Every structure is written in structure tokens, then in C-alpha cells.
Amino acid sequence: MDKRNLRYNILTVLVYIIGIILIIQLFNLQIVHGEEYREKSSTRLTRETKIEAARGNILDRNGNTIAGTITQYSLEIYKSKIDKQTLNNTLLEVTKVLDQHNDSYKDKFPIDAETLAFTMDSQEEINNWLKSNKLEENLTSEQVINKFKEKYEIKNEDIKEARKIIGLRYGIEKEGYSSMSAYVISNNISKESVAIFEEQSSKFPGIATSTTPRRKYLRGNLASHILGYIGPINKEELDEHEGYSINDYIGKTGIEFLFEKYLKGENGKKQTDMTIDGVTSAEYITKEAVAGDDVVLTIDANLQSVAESALKNNGLEVRQELIWNKNALVLGTQDYQWKHEPCLYGWKPGASHYFIDDRTQTTVIDNMKIDYNKMKKEELVELVENVINNLNTTVINENKPTINDLHPTMKPISLIGRQIKNSSRLNEIVLDLFGRKWVNTYCSRAN
């Protein structure tokens, strides 16, 4: 019984000691150092921003990069606790730096920054714009600038300087920004401009630079009908795809569209500490960005370039690539014997063209009509032997399923089956990068 009382007393003392320590620490935080911590919290902000992942490369069959990624520098502004006059002065200084290095920036205000004339063609368009901005009709461009000067509290007397400030303030007003979400002033500025903004950050409150990967087609328009292109994501695409934001780019057509989920990487995260007036004090990467996967095509970029140049030199533009399924193969040293030829199809740029459009034309040209009665004995023997031996050529003839409950574009098992069988021994491991159930199904059946 005495031992129980002793344990109870010891536990009670420990609880009291811990409570006293907590009370002392709370007193220290709130009373002794309270003013200091309140001042720090009111003068320091933290934001988390996205690190955009580089898009995967598109390569030809020889490993040459056709579509790659380059790094561009973006200029952004975040909302900070500075007065309107400081904001206006900052934006003017920003335009001076960008103009000095011939860097372009977003400016959708419909009055030209140099001529100070409306950029819209008709008075009706001008009046509609004035009405949408709650201004009376038939105002002159100078009167409009004065109206916006008053609205944005711009005190600059120089009308061209005021116009530059208005251009950025107008964009910020229309698109919005906050301490966590930036307004992008420019998507592509020079390294010289970046150096100034970073070295003299105290002069540019709220301004931040960031590196952004951008798609670059290294061979110009080569195979553009195959590669497709990327563009800003629209509302419908944003609703359909998870993991995207309104400022992202997405594959629109061609390979860029078909392999979007592989080419798109995984974005990272960056934490930025800044003072209350928007000056960055520290940056930390909390999650590294992961680049997208590369996609390798079967085309030869150099051969494609020669063919397209020949067409271009004759005033034609490639629109599609057709396949000629030949009735005879060309024996060679490669694994699969060549039995097809690409046929480039196009017309003169800007010209209209006739097309039968009977909904029966396909990208495969296969008009083989074999008259067995006219074939020689040797030709018949060769044909039969090819059928019996299931000769491996570059043409795969397999029926496409009319419908599939698992997936609308499900491929037949035999489509990939022959290639797996040709290149794999029994019980060997097959790497399936696409995660297709029909590959696994074939391998299970083969074993």
C-alpha cells in the first residue's frame, strides 16, 4: 500500500513540474518575448509555389531529339502590403529594365504605348470596350488614360510613363493576383534582366523571377503533322484532366496529345520567405520536380527532312503521312524485313484542295489484287512458304476489335504477341512500360 502511495505521489509531482514548465514557457512566449514575435510574424510572409517540370523529349528512331525543352526566365509579381504609389513606381521601374534589354511583357490595354492611339479598328469596338469598363462613349485615348490614371492613383505627369503603368495595372486587375498566386508579367526575359531583379530585389517589392521549362521544336516544322503541338490549357481540358492549373500547357494534337500523360512530368514545390513589403529573404525547395518521359518514334528525322524539303522546294506542304503496304518485301539485314514505304501527302500552303471525302480513305494504301492463275510456279511456292513461315515484316496485319468493355481503344493480344514471341524466350521477363493488360494476358497465355 505504501508503494502505491509513493508511486502516486511521484506521478503527481511530475505532473505539477510539467505544468509549471509549460506555464513558464507560455509566459515567456506571450509576455517576455511577445512583442518581438508579434513584430516578426507581422513582417514575414511565406508562400509555396510550383516548380514546373520539364516536358519529356520526342526522339526519332536514331535517338535524335526533335522536340526538346529549353529553360526560360519568367517575371512575376505577388501582392504585398505596399501602398499604391509604391506599386506604381515599382511597375514603372520594371518596364524600364525590360525595355532596356528588349524584353517583351504582357500589356493588353487597348491604347498603343508609343502612339497613344486606340488599337481597335472601329468606333463601335472602342465604345463597347469603354462601356465594359464603365466609361462614357466617344472618349479620346488621352481622356481614357487620364481616367485610368485617376483610378489607379498614378501621379506621373509623363503620359507615356503613365500609360506603361496602366498597362500592367490593367492586366493585374483583369487576371488578379495575391500573396500566394502571382500575376505573370513576362514569360521570357533575358538573363541580364534577371540579374538586375535578383541583385536589386529591395528596389522591386513583390517582384520575383522563376525558371520555366518551355517546349522547343529543334528541327523547326519537321514532322509537325506527326508531332502535333502544345498550347495553353482551356476550361474543358482543365475539367477533364487532374493535376493541371489554369497557367499550364497541354498537348493539343499528334504525339504531344496522344502521349500527354507520359510527356508531362511531375511538378515540384518551392517555399519562399519574404518580408511584408514583398522582398524575398529566402527560398527552399520542398519537393523536386520530375521531368516527363521521353517518347521514341519510328521515323528517321534526317530522311523525313529530305522528303519534306523536296516537297517544300516544289511548293507543297506535308499534311499527313500515308503507308504503302507493298506486295513484295525488300530483304535486308534488319530484324523485320521492309514491306512498307511512307508516302507524304500535302498541298500548296494557303491553297484550297479537292478531296473525294467519301469516308472510306485511310492512311494505309493497300490495293493488292493477286491473280493466282497468272502467277508462275516459283511465285506461288514463295507465297505459300511466306504464309507457312509467317514471315516477319514491317507490316502487321491484325484485325482491330470492334468493341471492348475494358477500354474503347483496346488492342488485340496478337498485335504485340508476335513481337514478344520473336524477341523473348519462354519464362523470360517482359518489361511492359505501358501497363497494358493485353500484354500481360499474352505473356500468361504464352507461358
Task: Describe this entry's structure for a reader.
The protein has 447 residues and is of the alpha+beta class. The protein has 15 helices and 13 strands. It has helices at residues 2-32, 34-42, 84-100, 123-132, 141-151, 159-175, 191-199, 224-227, 235-240, 254-258, 260-263, 301-313, 377-389, 413-423, 437-446; strands spanning 44-51, 58-59, 65-77, 183-189, 207-217, 230-232, 249-251, 268-275, 280-287, 295-296, 317-330, 338-347, 364-365. Strands 2, 3, 4, 5 and 10 form a 5-stranded mixed sheet that branches. Strands 1-8-9 form a 3-stranded antiparallel sheet. Strands 12-11-13 form a 3-stranded mixed sheet. Helix 3 crosses helix 6 (159-175), helix 5 packs across helix 6 (159-175) and helix 14 (413-423) crosses helix 15. The chain is flat, with a radius of gyration of 33 Å.
SSE arrangement, N to C? HHEEEHHHHEHEHEHEHHEEEHEEEHHH
The class by helix and strand makeup works out as alpha+beta
The general outline is flat
- Taking pLDDT < 50 over at least 5 consecutive residues as the criterion, the unreliable ranges are none
Mean pLDDT: 80
Percent range of helical residues: 25-40%
Proportion of beta-strand residues: 15-25%
Cα-based radius of gyration, to the nearest Å: 33 Å
Oligomer: single chain
Give me the number of helical elements.
Answer: 15
Distance between the termini: 74 Å
DSSP strand count: 13
| Largest β-sheet summary | 5 strands, mixed
Topology at a glance:
Blueprint: H1 2-32, H2 34-42, E1 44-51, E2 58-59, E3 65-77, H3 84-100, H4 123-132, H5 141-151, H6 159-175, E4 183-189, H7 191-199, E5 207-217, H8 224-227, E6 230-232, H9 235-240, E7 249-251, H10 254-258, H11 260-263, E8 268-275, E9 280-287, E10 295-296, H12 301-313, E11 317-330, E12 338-347, E13 364-365, H13 377-389, H14 413-423, H15 437-446
Helix pairs in contact: 3-6, 5-6, 14-15
